[in-house]
């Protein structure tokens, strides 16, 4: 049985990002955030209205780690993992921020799994 042209061209609907927030975490507590690469650093905007800017510091380490200083003076070690996720760890108190690479998707459509398509 041959499919009609309209049926043959039909593709599954793309997965759509759930909303405008990534599932970030601060000290293992999941919170919505959006991170943006800015010249010389990184800015994180949290869903609760907080915002912080981190500036790159001299003294980059090996293995995808480097140092950032927040606008309050705190020093953070940035680790970039192979899948694209980032973890920032405060060198003084151990606080950790997890930044996923991708936005979460709405529940997948039938026959679809995995990440959102942009």
Largest sheet: 8 strands, antiparallel, barrel
Low-pLDDT runs of 5+ residues are none
- Basic shape: elongated
Strand order of the largest sheet: 1-2-3-4-5-6-7-8
Distance between the termini: 34 Å
Binned strand content: 35-45%
Radius of gyration from CA coordinates: 19 Å
Order of helices and strands: HEEEEEEEE
Determine the number of helices (DSSP H or I, runs of at least 4 residues).
Answer: 1
Strand elements, count: 8
Arithmetic mean of pLDDT:
82
The portion of residues assigned to helices is under 10%
Indicate the structural class.
mainly beta
Main attributes?
118 residues, mainly beta, 1 helix, 8 strands, 4% helix, elongated
Structural overview:
This protein has 118 residues and is mainly beta. 4% of the residues lie in helices and 42% in strands. It has an 8-stranded antiparallel β-barrel. A hairpin with a 7-residue loop joins strand 4 (51-57) and strand 5. It is elongated and about 55 Å long. The mean pLDDT is 82.
